[in-house]
């Protein structure tokens, strides 16, 4: 392993070819993992099909695109620096400009932009990112565009807050990871019910898998000849029951069929055929008076008892789910675990408790508030919009995790919500899709991160900084060769930044 790491950090290549070679290895390995190793682990491909990813054109193309980006960025960095220095040599002296004249004020602004060392990395990365449109995995390119753009905004905002910039000083302190987590959860819950085609499928499977107390499973002794609704069918019916129509109001009442007659009725229990098996064979408790509650927890007439029972069952399942991922992350940093196993065990247990509380608490409270609002709000008051409030209020459990974890969860849910909102707007005709829009978003996000990485690498997250280091090498702040090519002094830039603020 030491020899492999030494090869990856300093491969036996000329210095100018080392960084593109590492970028090629990163792109090649990414496609091999996504197209070979991962499907093999999930048993979606045979071993022979998975091995074909090692020699596939897609793997070679993935590596070539990243290598081309790396090489093009370094070339543009040098050429644009020469252009910048030539323009600065011909630029007028700032002290001789008359700021009462509009033309001189424009010249002063342009001169200030040219004097910024971040201009060249931003422009070079933006121009070089055009080759990333050739990346052969569109889904990965789209995910990277959304991830990099949100991370660029997040890192830039955190940096501006840390230096006390006036451009963000007006933002209240409560606007952070927890707030965006709540806002995104409200949007996602609404999309999950009313626009399921725009909702992230993987996120939807997690919600449905952790909602067995509110989406009744098929009874064990029920004959196979009797149909039973799938979890997604139940969610669609909930959306239908929450939507008023010209002939029926939202949240209809319910009367159990066992109270209406001593003999079974020849007519259906309700006019919703998908959920009739739940009401007939679960069966629905006679004490239910609201149809939505009878569907969500048919055998338990008390909404509060069902809510508490949810935590008793789902918290344990969520704890097992979180424990697996926490164990994997600790195995990656096994040296720290071996060095201090007691602290590692405590952190493991704390992470499991916190993660299980957030997952089960957020999902359970969102379902529980459905019953709560149905009891205490008029049926005509926000019949569909109340689900946004469900998701927002149920996010209070984000306070169970530390501040850093809140920022991570808020960033993740925000990306999912933005993707869902874009899909809803496109489906409803609020806006049209932008051709190569993911490439533009990817280029702008990468350019912002790149200029921060080159001039102020400490303001970029460590994981992102490591990835950018593989693509373009060390940042200019610590790379003397880049500093000479950019004609930039880190000390001078820091002094200039403090002076401007």
Total DSSP E strands: 0
Summarize the main sheet.
none
Q: How far apart are the termini?
A: 47 Å
> In percent, how helical is the residue content?
55-70%
User: Mean of residue pLDDT?
Assistant: 84
Tally the helices: 22
Low-confidence stretches: 492-501
Query: How much of the residues is beta strand, in percent?
Result: under 5%
Transmembrane segments: 113-137
Biased composition (Basic and acidic residues): 491-501
Keywords: Membrane, Transmembrane, Transmembrane helix
Region (Disordered): 479-501
Give structural notes.
Residues 491-501 have a biased composition (Basic and acidic residues). InterPro entries: Tmem135 (IPR026749). The chain crosses the membrane at residues 113-137. Keywords: Membrane, Transmembrane, Transmembrane helix. This protein has 501 residues and is mainly α. Among the domains are: 1-115, no CATH class; 178-212 and 302-427, no CATH class; 231-296, no CATH class. It is 66% helix and 0% strand. It has 22 helices and no strands. Helix 16 runs antiparallel to helix 17 (386-394). It is globular and about 90 Å long.
């Amino acid at each position: 392993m030491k020899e492999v790491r030494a090869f990856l950090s300093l491969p036996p290549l000329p210095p100018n070819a080392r960084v593109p070679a590492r970028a090629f290895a990163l792109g090649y390995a990414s496609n091999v993992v996504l197209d070979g190793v991962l499907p093999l682990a999930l048993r979606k491909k045979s071993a022979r099909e998975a091995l074909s990813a090692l020699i596939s054109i897609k793997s070679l193309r993935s590596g070539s695109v990243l290598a081309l980006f790396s090489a093009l960025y370094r070339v543009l960095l040098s050429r644009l620096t020469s252009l910048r220095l030539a323009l600065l040599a011909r630029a007028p002296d700032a002290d001789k400009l008359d700021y009462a004249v509009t033309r001189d004020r424009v010249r002063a602004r342009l001169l200030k932009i040219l004097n910024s060392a971040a201009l060249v990395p931003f422009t070079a990365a933006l121009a070089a990112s055009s080759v990333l449109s050739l990346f052969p995995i569109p889904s990965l390119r789209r995910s990277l565009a959304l991830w990099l753009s949100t991370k660029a905004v997040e890192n830039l905002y955190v940096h501006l807050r840390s230096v006390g910039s006036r451009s963000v000083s007006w933002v209240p302190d409560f606007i952070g990871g927890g707030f965006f987590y709540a806002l995104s959860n409200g949007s996602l819950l609404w999309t999950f019910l009313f626009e399921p085609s725009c909702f992230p499928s993987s996120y939807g499977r997690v919600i449905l898998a952790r909602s067995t107390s509110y989406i009744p499973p098929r009874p064990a002794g029920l004959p196979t000849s009797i149909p039973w609704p799938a979890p997604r069918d139940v969610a669609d019916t909930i959306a239908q029951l929450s939507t008023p129509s010209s002939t029926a109001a939202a949240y209809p009442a319910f009367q159990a069929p066992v109270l209406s007659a001593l003999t079974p009725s020849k007519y259906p229990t309700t006019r919703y055929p998908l959920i009739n098996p739940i009401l007939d064979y679960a069966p629905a408790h006679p004490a239910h008076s609201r149809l939505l509650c009878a569907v969500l927890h048919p055998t338990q007439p008390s909404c509060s008892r069902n809510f508490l029972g949810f935590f008793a069952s789902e918290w344990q399942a969520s704890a097992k789910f979180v424990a697996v991922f926490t164990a994997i992350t600790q195995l990656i940093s096994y040296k720290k675990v071996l060095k201090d196993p007691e602290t590692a065990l405590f952190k493991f247990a704390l992470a499991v408790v916190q993660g299980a509380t957030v997952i089960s608490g957020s999902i359970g409270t969102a379902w529980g508030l459905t019953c709560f609002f149905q009891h205490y709000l008029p049926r005509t008051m926000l019949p569909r919009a109340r689900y946004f409030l469900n998701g927002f209020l149920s996010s209070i459990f984000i306070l169970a995790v530390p501040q850093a974890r809140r920022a991570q969860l808020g960033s993740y849910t925000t990306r999912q919500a933005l993707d869902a909102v874009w899909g809803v707007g496109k489906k409803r005709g609020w806006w049209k899709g932008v051709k190569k829009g993911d490439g533009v978003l990817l280029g702008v996000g990468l350019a912002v991160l790149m200029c921060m990485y080159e001039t102020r690498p400490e303001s970029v997250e460590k994981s992102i900084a490591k990835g950018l280091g593989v693509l373009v090498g060390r940042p200019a702040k610590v790379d003397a060769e880049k500093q000479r090519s950019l004609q930039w002094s880190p000390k001078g830039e820091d002094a200039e930044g403090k002076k401007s603020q």
